[in-house]
Amino acid sequence: MARVLTPRAEDFPRWYQDLIAKAKLADNGPVRGTMVIRPAGYAIWERMQAEMDARIKAAGAENAYFPLFIPESYLKREAQHVEGFSPELAVVTHGGGKPLAEPIVVRPTSETVIGEFMAKWIDSYRDLPLLLNQWANVVRWELRPRIFLRTSEFLWQEGHTAHATREDARAYARRILHEAYEDLMVNVIGIPVVVGLKTARERFAGATATYTCEGMMGDGKALQLGTSHELGQNFAKAFDISYSSKEGGREHAWTTSWGTSTRMLGGLIMAHGDDNGLRVPPRLAPIQAYVMIVKDGDGVGEAAAKLRDGLRDAGVRVALDDRTDTPFGRRAVDAELRGYPVRVEVGPRDLAVGNATVVRRTDGSKTPTPVADVVTAVLAALETDQQVLHDQALANRESRTVEVATLAEAIEAAATGWARVPWSAVGVAGEAEANGQGVTVRCLLRADGSVPDSEDEPDLIAILARAY
């Protein structure tokens, strides 16, 4: 395979940018910090959307849509929230050629505008829980943009819910965390995430608790792939989201919010990609099997079309490449870059003896296979390689995670991977010291790996790392 990417070991950030460009996943937009998601990249995002949307709906939430423009006064109602987002806000001051009576914020997230309408729609305990989700774009003015990871505008889903009790709100925030986010990331995207509690320093602005899914990338750094927040009654009091209880009193609701974004595409690239390009887990891949005509003639086109149809009938997402006017080597390189899980190469020489060649993206293996057995071989490869990619990512994380006893050791370990250290050995002061050296506490865990309710619980483990 011709070298078209900077090797990961040589320059990981350059490899990442090379891959995005050469695989035609995305491009930089005309305004600094924005991105254009190309069809190949958007097809993967659509698969992520579909899988996530199904999980969110299974948890009882319904999709809605709220405005892109938010009155600046809405954000100012929740002090921590506006303070947390102020440096990232894009503000509109003119419209229709005239100064606006009140500046308008381009949504960085929608707690405030959705809170306004929750207050309007909720009257009685019978209206709870109110479970909403929206698919939208948001704007956060990034100083150091990087495609998919940090852009001034990105795509995401954001869920917002209101509940009668704190217990119900907490249970729902965690349900989304595990049943939607963790399940998708582990079982579809193939990234073994660590699920834990954010520290107060890392908590979402205005939240009382933030839960996170953290994945290790190929260079040992962490990437926050999704978060779920308990908002307590902070937004309910700011926007008067209240209800008549069964007892006849007036109570404020307890709210949550949660989101995942196109950052998951960056995670996919950095967790699974290799020096030949992207590797897309089969359950996620828009194209699972790519049938390629090596050279036309001798019934090759007809045989390739039959294989495509047979794979499609077996439930495989399949495409046929019959562009024989383009050199096969170039097409094969492009297929590697795009990360199609399986290629089926059909040429006159193999076909003459009744074979096609099945190529697996995970390891590059090429297996001559009787045409009659190709569908079975492809289905087996797809099932196996979904697990292979997960297991390779898990092995990378385990090999680069070390148990340490002190903050100094944790900061040193974060140069090449993750550190697990007692939270009591770090604490608030130690976290600030680590931040000063570019290391963050990614999350807190109980000793048994479960998610704590509070950072004040005894015997918690902190995960420290450098992060994107």
From TrEMBL:
UniProt keyword terms in alphabetical order: Aminoacyl-tRNA synthetase, ATP-binding, Cytoplasm, Ligase, Nucleotide-binding, Protein biosynthesis
Domain of life: Bacteria
Enzymatic class: ligase
Stored InterPro entries: aa-tRNA-synt_IIb, aa-tRNA-synth_II, aa-tRNA-synth_II/BPL/LPL, Anticodon-bd, Anticodon-bd_dom_sf, Pro-tRNA-ligase_IIa, Pro-tRNA-ligase_IIa_arc-type, Pro-tRNA_ligase_II_C
GO molecular function ontology, one term from the record: proline-tRNA ligase activity
Residue span(s) of domain Aminoacyl-transfer RNA synthetases class-II family profile: 32-281
Reactions catalysed: tRNA(Pro) + L-proline + ATP = L-prolyl-tRNA(Pro) + AMP + diphosphate
SMART domains named in the record: ProRS-C_1 (SM00946)
Signal peptide: none
EC number(s) on file: 6.1.1.15
Gene3D superfamilies assigned to the protein according to its UniProt record, in alphabetical order: Anticodon-binding domain (3.40.50.800), Bira Bifunctional Protein, Domain 2 (3.30.930.10)
Primary role: Catalyzes the attachment of proline to tRNA(Pro) in a two-step reaction: proline is first activated by ATP to form Pro-AMP and then transferred to the acceptor end of tRNA(Pro).
Cross-referenced HAMAP family: Pro_tRNA_synth_type3
Record note on quaternary structure: Homodimer.
Protein name: Proline--tRNA ligase
